[in-house]
Amino acid sequence: MKKLTILCLSVILIVGCNNFDEDININPNAPSQSSGTQLIANAMLSLSSLSSSPTGEFMSQYLSETQYVNASLYPQVSASFYWIYQGPLMNLETVLNAEDELSGTEGPIVNQIAVAKILKCYYMWHITDRWGDVPYTAALKGAENFTPSYDTQESIYLDLFATLKEANSQMTAGAISNDIIYNGDMEKWSKLANTIRMLMALRLSEIDATLAQQEFTAAMEDGVFSSNEDNFVFKHLADANNQSYWYSQVDVQNREWWALSETLVEKMKPYDDPRLSIYGDPNRTDGDYTGLTFGEIDEIGTEEYSLLGAAIHAQDAPVFLVTYAQSLFAMAEAAKLGWIAGGDIEAENYYLMAVQSSMEQWGADMTNIDAFLAQPEIAYSSVDAIEKISTQRWIHLFMHGYEGWAEYRRTGYPDNMVSPGGADVPNRQMYIEAEQFNNTDNYNEAVQRQFGGAESLYGNVWWDAE
């Protein structure tokens, strides 16, 4: 009997043992099936990876590489979106396809579905803005379809608008559990859905101003962020199991590989921007703030430049994904464009509120905020309003490089981006090479449709068409 027991225990993970009661074969601490809100929470855990990336920071020229400069020189290499599909999106799709199986003990099922839709939309918005046309309607089918077709970015945007509206309209009273973002507060999820819609609409300002204005104003009317308390933030913990990527690099591995770029410092230091002392540390040579030219080999030493600030690489540093300041910058631009009432008066009001909200979000010293905002180079002006709004928004989006890059591509600001070795800032990222071999026909069709058959970093996504 002893030998039989040992044998059963040794194979239990493979086939189980018929001599054991079913309850003995179940580990209550390792459930074989996740609940709906657990899958949603798992999808949330991947949010930090959307901004915790040196590549994103390079695309927006927030940081300069000090050690391996070639990594920041926009090499013609592919980037993978597989991890987003295989991880968070598949978790969310599982929830959306199992509505009848979800448990109401974790909060209203319609709210679980609504949150899953909003998160799916956010991830897909991120993907399509980086790569252009991507698998969408035919994706996430598992074994049913290993070679999904690519949807146009235009059709993806239209469906995301509709899905976000649908998610917002189906919400009801009652919190959901396992919500590590908003602790189940559905009012905040509603505001997030509308704010994402509004920001997406602004992205279309150069390609379809009529649709952009229509979606923008509708989202505003439905209710967007109204304070920094509404911010869509991923909160790391002071714990090795959920710590900041930058902490693991800078503090744990002692890597001084990233300095503030000269591009960034030039837009902040001359105006005594109080966020600069948050974003970076003074250099260790003379205590001044010094940016490293993007793409330039550091031949002097990292002590000459401003490295990442302590708050930025703290173990529990937050990741700001969608913010109140962003929504205010968007409304400032919309007022200037005539999409919403108020003209320059309202545009200036939103602009000033946006900058102050950004300062508050980052924990900057607000003592001299009035003097800062009164400087001619910072103060609102009807003549160069779009440039000032865009530049301050770019500064605000520090450490969310992909979003800062998207806004730069749309507006062309800030106006001091450099082209190391003659390489301009890319317009998109290239599809992972595996798609050429594993999804050949659909890959070729997407490349032909968008770029005439030749894929590169400098093909334009739909909303950035020249």
How would you explain this protein's 3D organization?
With 466 residues, the protein is mainly alpha-helical. The protein has one domain: Alpha Horseshoe (Serine Threonine Protein Phosphatase 5, Tetratricopeptide repeat). Helix content is 45%, strand content 4%. It contains 18 helices and 6 strands. The chain has helices at residues 2-11, 36-45, 54-59, 82-96, 109-131, 153-170, 186-203, 209-222, 245-252, 262-266, 276-279, 324-337, 343-362, 369-374, 385-396, 401-411, 434-438, 440-451; strands at 63-65, 134-135, 150-151, 232-235, 258-260, 318-322. The strands form 3 sheets. It has a two-stranded antiparallel sheet with strand order 1-5. A two-stranded antiparallel sheet has the order 2-3. The longest helix has 23 residues, at 109-131. The chain is globular, with a radius of gyration of 24 Å. Mean pLDDT is 92; it is low at 1-24 and 27-31. This is SusD/RagB family nutrient-binding outer membrane lipoprotein. InterPro entries: SusD-like_2, TPR-like_helical_dom_sf.
Structural class category: mainly alpha
Write down the overall geometry. globular
* CATH topological fold name: Serine Threonine Protein Phosphatase 5, Tetratricopeptide repeat
Using the CA coordinates, give the radius of gyration. Answer: 24 Å
- Our measurement of the CA-to-CA distance between the termini, rounded to an integer number of angstroms, reads 78 Å
Count every beta strand, where a strand is a DSSP E run of 2 or more residues.
6
Taking pLDDT < 50 over at least 5 consecutive residues as the criterion, the unreliable ranges are: 1-24, 27-31
CATH architectural category: Alpha Horseshoe
Oligomer: single chain
Mean pLDDT: 92
Task: Describe the strand arrangement of the main beta sheet, using strand numbers.
Answer: 1-5
What is the H-and-E element order? HHHEHHEEHHHEHEHHEHHHHHHH
* Overall number of domains: 1
SS strand fraction: under 5%
Number of helices, counting only DSSP H or I runs of 4 residues or more? 18
Largest pleated sheet? 2 strands, antiparallel
What would CATH call the class?
Answer: Mainly Alpha
Q: What's the helical proportion of residues?
A: 40-55%
Pfam family, one: SusD-like_2
Protein name: SusD/RagB family nutrient-binding outer membrane lipoprotein
Organism: Echinicola rosea
InterPro entries: SusD-like_2, TPR-like_helical_dom_sf
